[in-house]
């Protein structure tokens, strides 16, 4: 596991947290939050100690996906630190735990980034192998604040094969390159639709878009998830796919993607150990199966 994250602003690491991984997307609607929670659960199924930070200040959703009852609040220690809420075997923290579920965050940028800094640095995560951060879509204030506030091990870009989504995904990759955060891999959602009646496969949003962008930026395709109603229904019900049935076909895809993520982190550590420049994730392999 990487001990010195690549951007490493002033060596500012979270106590006890070995790896901070950003789950990001260039645009909304590509399944980023669903991917973040299922990747976190998949890492936990494999025995890791995992935390999930919902950094989407304006549209937090992880509380719902983890089945946290509305109105449940995090504990407080020393009148200063939040104690994350445990759900489905992982620790979680979200702005949704601090405000009413129906209250919109009508905040300007500085207020939102200030709130992020507070829940990021004033949460006592304890010992974690991985802290996954569900980022808001785009390349704005929250992304820059995260890169400047805490040492980050790497980022995962979530996209669909659709051309417009891939265009925004490229912008996300370029942004992380500029702030020296390695892109660990691409996770492609809605890669194919399989008809429940006839079994016909249809690439509704295009084919191999995730693979092509992974090749372009010399990174990994961590996995490709189908357009499947069960993924959405289970996340909405508070028991995402990996928690509902860890051995299902969908769950096994998430678990394979999580293992690819761990492999990417380990390979990154090897490059850093040998003093090689890891920007743009050079040398990362693309797994096509």
Stated plainly, the CATH topology is called Rossmann fold
Distance between the termini: 24 Å
| Number of distinct helices | 9
Name the average pLDDT: 86
* CATH class (first level) name: Alpha Beta
Radius of gyration over all CA atoms, rounded: 18 Å
Largest sheet: 8 strands, mixed
Oligomer: single chain
Q: Please state the second-level CATH architecture.
A: 3-Layer(aba) Sandwich
Beta strands, count? 12
Q: Indicate how many domains the architecture comprises.
A: 1
CATH superfamily: P-loop containing nucleotide triphosphate hydrolases
Please list the strands of the largest sheet in the order they lie side by side.
Answer: 5-6-2-7-1-8-9-12
| Structure classification | alpha/beta
Shape: globular
Low-confidence stretches: 277-289
Summarize the structure.
This protein is of the alpha/beta class and 289 residues long. 35% of the residues lie in helices and 17% in strands. It contains 9 helices and 12 strands.
């Amino acid at each position: 596991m990487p001990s010195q994250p690549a951007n490493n602003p002033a060596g500012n690491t979270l106590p006890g947290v070995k790896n901070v991984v950003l789950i990001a997307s260039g645009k909304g609607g590509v399944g980023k939050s669903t991917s973040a929670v299922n990747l976190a659960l998949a890492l936990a199924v494999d025995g890791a100690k995992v935390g999930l930070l919902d950094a989407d200040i304006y549209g937090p959703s992880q509380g719902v996906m983890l089945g946290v009852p509305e109105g449940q609040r995090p504990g407080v220690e020393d009148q200063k630190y939040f104690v994350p809420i445990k759900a489905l075997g992982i620790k979680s923290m979200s702005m949704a735990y601090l405000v009413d579920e129906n209250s919109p965050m009508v905040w300007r940028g500085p207020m939102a980034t200030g709130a992020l800094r507070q829940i990021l640095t004033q949460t006592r995560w304890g010992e974690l192998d991985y802290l996954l951060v569900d980022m808001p879509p785009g390349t704005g204030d929250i992304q820059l604040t995260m890169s400047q506030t805490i040492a980050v091990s790497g980022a995962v870009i979530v996209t669909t094969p659709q051309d417009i989504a891939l265009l925004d995904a490229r912008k996300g990759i370029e942004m992380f390159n500029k702030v020296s955060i390695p892109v660990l891999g691409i996770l492609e959602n809605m890669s194919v639709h399989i008809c429940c009646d006839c079994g016909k496969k249809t690439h509704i949003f295009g084919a191999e878009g995730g693979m092509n962008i992974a090749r372009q930026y010399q990174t990994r395709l961590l996995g490709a998830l189908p357009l499947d109603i069960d993924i959405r229904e289970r996340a909405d019900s508070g028991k995402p796919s990996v928690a509902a049935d860890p051995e299902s076909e969908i769950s096994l895809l998430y678990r394979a993607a999580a293992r690819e993520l761990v492999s990417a982190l380990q390979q990154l550590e090897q490059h850093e150990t040998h003093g090689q420049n890891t920007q743009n994730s050079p040398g990362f392999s693309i797994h096509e199966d």
